[in-house]
């Protein structure tokens, strides 16, 4: 974006209300034609919104988000294939499944954490399929990492090399791009206080001056 375009986007966002928390400064708009719902990135999980972290980085509200076409199976074991806790009987925003084996069920937050830690080795935790499974997860709003497996990185590099260094907001407003980070001000880069695998500029996620921590939508 040019500086003028960035200022215009900031002014427009300041006038938009998040349909989840009802506060102003919502920078994300549903991509469905005719839908004017806007929301903050941190509010997305509560509002059951989906942001696709590839291509055009499209975002969708709860009504227009993509949904899996999986059907419940009579012999389905309703436990998460990752954490082994109970999942819902039916596929939903919080409960997802593998489109290949159709047996694996997992919580959205569990598969998101697996995706970030698995990096380029991300695949279905049950049938180990990679290609169709990976594409479906992308469409459903799961963010992938292009880095090697986290447990391999821990052995290969030191802690200083692992710090995340880019803004992952659906719409980055920084004129210098997603990689720019300043020590203070609107372009200060905040890392998720839980996983440290996602970051955001203060302004891109509408973080006030009194904010002392930030948690990404997947955590």
UniProtKB/TrEMBL annotation:
Keywords: Ligase, Metal-binding, Zinc, Zinc-finger. Residues 80-127 form the RING-type domain. The keyword Cell division does not apply. PROSITE patterns: EPHD (PS51805), ZF_RING_2 (PS50089). It comes from the Eukaryota. This is G2E3 ligase. One of its GO terms (molecular function) is ligase activity. Signal peptide: none annotated. The keyword Metal-binding applies. InterPro entries: EPHD, PHD-type_Zinc_Finger, PHD_PHF7/G2E3-like, Znf_FYVE_PHD, Znf_PHD, Znf_RING, Znf_RING/FYVE/PHD. Residues 1-65 form the PHD-type domain. Pfam families: PHD_G2E3, zf-HC5HC2H, zf-RING_2. GO terms for cellular component: nucleus. Transmembrane segments: none annotated.
């Amino acid at each position: 974006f040019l500086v003028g375009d960035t200022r215009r986007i900031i002014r427009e966002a300041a006038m938009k209300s998040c349909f989840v928390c009802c506060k102003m400064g919502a920078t994300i708009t549903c991509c469905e034609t005719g839908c004017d719902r806007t929301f903050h990135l941190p509010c997305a999980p509560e509002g059951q919104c989906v942001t696709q972290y590839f291509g055009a980085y499209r975002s969708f509200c709860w009504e227009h988000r993509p949904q899996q076409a999986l059907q419940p199976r009579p012999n389905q074991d309703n436990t998460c294939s990752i954490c082994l806790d109970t999942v819902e009987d039916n596929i939903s925003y919080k409960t997802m499944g593998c489109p290949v084996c159709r047996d694996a069920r997992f919580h959205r937050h569990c598969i998101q954490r697996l995706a970030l830690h698995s990096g380029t080795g991300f695949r279905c935790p049950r049938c180990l399929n990679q290609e169709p499974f990976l594409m479906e997860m992308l469409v459903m709003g799961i963010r992938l990492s292009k880095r090697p497996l986290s447990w391999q990185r821990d052995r290969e590099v030191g802690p200083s090399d692992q710090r995340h260094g880019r803004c992952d907001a659906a719409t980055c407003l920084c004129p210098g791009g997603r990689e720019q980070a300043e020590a203070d001000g609107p372009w200060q880069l905040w890392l998720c206080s839980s996983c440290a695998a996602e970051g955001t500029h203060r302004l891109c996620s509408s973080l006030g001056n009194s904010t002392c921590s930030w948690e990404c939508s997947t955590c």
